Amino acid sequence: PILYSYFRSSCSWRVRIALALKGIAYDVVPVNLLKDGGQQFSAEFKAANPMQQVPVLKIDGITLSQSLAIIHYLEDTRPNPWLLPQDPKKRAQVRMIADHIAAGIQPIQNLSILNKIGEKKMEWAQNCIASGFQALEQILQHTAGRYCVGDEVSMADLCLVPQVANAERYKVDMGPYPTITRINKALLELEAFKVSHPSRQPDTPAELRA
């Protein structure tokens, strides 16, 4: 498998965690979203993903984009360990939390949006994340065990940790979100979350390396 990834991309990080949890070896092709005006806009990369976004995973003879679609495919083809619970209610909760982050928070504070906001991009990102986290904190108070849904790592957790990293990068006050903070801390102790961390990627700049 080949993963087109950017070290700091939260969507790429979700997929890196899934690959690590499932023990899938892969090669990385770095796509620098800032260099050369954005390498995602190159003709070569557009051929891999017309949306010109990372991540892209080439696996089993197909090319997949969109992080959750990639993770669903890995779940369907390599279900051990599972990232979606067998219980339909818990499975729905996992999908709800994953979508809350992947559709409701991350897209409105990602690089392409912030570039259009201009001078107030820090304030914009903080407001988007805080608004989403206020809702997410309430949801997790009903679903969480050790992790987002119960005591097993799920797709929801793969979305949570990169989004908290974004929040910290944009200096969001995490004080009002004790459940999110507790779960994030527990997840960052797991090996799959450590090896996939932005500070430990092939394209991580020297000054940001762990």
Q: What can you see in these coordinates?
A:
The chain has 210 residues and is of the alpha+beta class. It folds into two domains: 2-81, 3-Layer(aba) Sandwich (Glutaredoxin); 88-193, Glutathione S-transferase Yfyf (Class Pi), Chain A, domain 2. It has nine helices and four strands; from the N terminus they run βαβαββααααααα. A four-stranded mixed β-sheet has the order 2-1-3-4, covered by helices on one side. The longest helix has 23 residues, at 121-143. The two termini are 25 Å apart. The mean pLDDT is 96. It is found in: Cytoplasm.
In short:
This protein has 210 residues and is of the alpha+beta class.
Features:
alpha+beta; Glutaredoxin; globular; 210 residues; Glutathione S-transferase Yfyf (Class Pi), Chain A, domain 2
Helix and strand topology:
Layout: E1 2-5, H1 10-21, E2 27-30, H2 43-48, E3 56-59, E4 62-65, H3 67-77, H4 88-104, H5 111-117, H6 121-143, H7 155-169, H8 178-187, H9 191-195
Parallel strand pairs: 1-2
Antiparallel strand pairs: 1-3, 3-4
Organism: Caloenas nicobarica
Pfam families: GST_C_3, GST_N_2
EC number: 2.5.1.18, 5.2.1.2
